[in-house]
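Example 5.3 — Acyl-coenzyme A thioesterase THEM4
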Amino acid sequence: MRGCGRPAPPAFRAQEGRVSGVSAATTPAGTPRPGLTPPADAVAPVRHPDAPAPGELLGAHYDQCFGCGDAQPHGLHLAARAGEGVSVTAEFTVQPAHQGAPGLAHGGVLVSALDETLGALSWLLRVIAVTGRLESDFVRPVPVGATLHLSARCTAVAGRKIYSSAEGRIGGPDGPLAVRADALFVEVKLDHFTDNGRPEEIRAAMADPDQVKVARAFEVNP
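Solution (predicted structure tokens):
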């Protein structure tokens, strides 16, 4: 107990380093991150002419995906929509299966939601890309039952490298900021998946009679 002269447990001491729910270790917005800052020769991203229209629901790229798949009972079931330019929005409601501390979303789950949203940008660029690096900031706790409103945008492209950023807010698109991330995605070829994925899943996905689902399963891998 705090009043008996014994030192507080580490978990409580860590909380003393927080001010108004914001971690003292949080990186200020706009701070350059090594490896995540576009090089001088990077160019502005260009929305592909065949990209989904703004407001269009993108849907799951693979029904077994933890982030967006409908067949994962404890997945995020994140629903993303195309935005203007090279941007997307998404929503994810924290379920009891997603908690870390009692009643709060697990930090790794929140990073998965950011990663899934950032990966959805590939639909607008019409490239196959995977996460190369992602750095996140946890700004405030996200309780079970809360809906996280996410947004992501591509900021630059340099060869195979795609730079992007995302944020998640509680209660609405303009609600309090809860999490944010900067990421580097790398464009890859189809054999990145077919050569490295577990053969059972690869065969099952490619044998699906729905050829649209086959194509989607290997077009985006957030």
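Remark. The two ends are 45 Å apart (CA to CA).
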